[in-house]
Please model this.
Amino acid sequence: MEKIYNITIDGPAGSGKTTISKMVAEALNITYLDTGAMYRAIACYVKSKKVDFNDTDTIVKLLDEIDLKVELNQGEQKTSINGKVYGEELRAHDISNGASIVCKIPAIRLKMVDLQREIARKYSCTLDGRDIGSFVLPDAEFKFYLTADVDTRAKRRWLQLKDKMDVTIEQVKADLIERDERDSSRELAPLCVPKNAFVLDTTNLNQEEVMSIILEEVKKG
Model:
């Protein structure tokens, strides 16, 4: 039986961690676990119930009726709540912001973390987020933290969004700054550089260069 290992890739929004996590998983022929999709699915469900993302008490009450499942099959992940599979809607701009808000709720976060740890025990995988190496899997074999200046991150995110919605780079940058503050200041498992993580500034690096550096570090073992 092959040894199970995990690679955590943390960083702020727009640092490239999701794309790189997928690329690394494919290169190593292991699973990519999209932890962000789990929180985004919660945000989608909250929105479907017409509950404000800042209404913590009501969201916590909703938790009892939420049956979130993650299915992994040949590298593909299906994230569902109560049987409804969420797809493209997970990437909507308002859902991204909503996920950043609801993930601050301790009851939500702890439920998701338990599920993430359960999956990581079963599969060798890459996981990206803001607290994966610091809180979810602090003993992971390989931990990375990607960062980039806010202008670069805003441009990257804008390029992802511009064909889907009417948004300016300035609006995206303002959202990123607000989200950085929210993620870094939350009480439970804030965004931070995990202990013993390899820190990589991606501002002036393309995706292939970042992946190459990470794979080389993993190869060193």
